[in-house]
Specification:
Number of domains: 2
Radius of gyration: 24 Å
Strand order of the largest sheet: 2-3-1-4
Oligomer: single chain
Distance between the termini: 34 Å
Shape: elongated
Length: about 300
């Protein structure tokens, strides 16, 4: 029992809890203010829930969209637990179960009816509703994917496709979403379904863009005779790992050492300032963007000089 509760005492747990809450709140606002009024069915569990709620209404049954979201997510969470992993499953349990209540929260704070002045939706145009929804939802998804969580529903299906078929996460969102989007034929005209399919495709592109932006790192390569000073700075000051490569210049035929490290943008700027202050005038630097990193890159190994081996 102690091992289960141990993570609750860490800053990482509470930081990620805050990030998850803010991220899913942003996504809930997107669903409530832009998806529900316009009845746009973008490939998502929220959209699928809107379809089901409308079908139930035709049979005289009133079921809230938020309730359907919770029920469908509960089924998908079981799949996430067994098919993706316990960490992803636990985090998604939290985000998925509060999505419905958060939609009700936005309804209580500011009902979308008050924002509709002329027409049937907040933006009075399905394309503007689509763009606003996709932009907000994609940001929410990218934030949650970055900490190995999701908004639940479609994201669980997308994560399964991503894990087992190795597609980009944006492509996975598009594939899973397109299937769900086609259920909108039950309540919407052909034109609206096409808009939804286009929105699903844009959503996939936007998720990839925001994910790459949030995960972007610099792969920095430095060639210098003072490579040992650079190595120590990266390890001791920036607290990052690095690799050393023996190389030979193609023109000069001189043997040198290349230092290669993966750094955040701030760490890259700090390294450049260090090289400038220490007057590394003869070093050669190249840097490129990296958006996908696997392994223990994010695990800082903070050691004091007294504990180093």
């Amino acid at each position: 029992m102690t091992d289960i509760l141990k993570p609750l005492a860490t800053w990482k747990f509470w930081k990620e809890l805050i990030i998850m809450t803010l991220g899913i709140s942003f996504g809930a606002a997107a669903v409530y203010y832009f998806l529900m009024p316009s009845k746009l069915i973008i490939g998502s569990i929220s959209g699928f829930s809107i379809v089901l709620a409308d079908i139930f209404a035709k049979f005289g049954l009133t079921v809230k969209v938020s309730t359907l979201i919770v029920v469908i997510n509960a089924v998908l969470l079981v799949m996430a637990w067994f098919m993706i992993g316990h960490e992803f499953g636990l985090k998604t349990v939290y985000t998925a179960l509060i999505l419905g209540p958060l939609i009700d929260m936005w309804a209580a704070i500011l009902p979308y009816e008050k924002l509709i002045t002329d027409g049937t939706s907040v933006m009075n145009d399905p394309w503007f509703d689509l763009l606003c929804f996709v932009l907000m939802l994609s940001i929410s998804q990218a934030i949650l994917f970055r900490i190995n969580a999701s908004t639940g529903g479609l994201d669980i299906l997308a994560k399964i496709v991503n894990k087992y078929f190795h597609f980009d996460i944006g492509t996975s969102v598009t594939i899973a979403g397109a299937i769900i989007c086609c259920t909108a034929f039950a309540i919407n005209p052909f034109r609206m379904v096409v808009i939804g399919l286009i929105g699903t495709w844009i959503n996939g592109i936007a998720v990839d863009y925001f994910t790459d932006t949030l995960n972007k790192r610099k792969r920095v390569c430095v060639i210098s005779d003072r490579h040992e000073e650079i190595r120590k700075y990266i390890i001791e000051d920036l607290q990052r790992g690095c690799s050393l490569y023996d190389i030979r210049g193609g023109f000069s035929q001189e043997h040198k050492v290349e230092v290669v490290a993966l750094l955040t943008q701030d760490e890259y700027a700090a390294l450049l300032n260090f090289l400038k202050e220490k007057q590394f005038d003869n070093c050669f630097i190249t840097a490129g963007n990296v958006s996908e990193i696997y392994g223990n890159w994010n695990q800082h190994k903070k050691q004091t000089l007294g504990t180093k081996r």
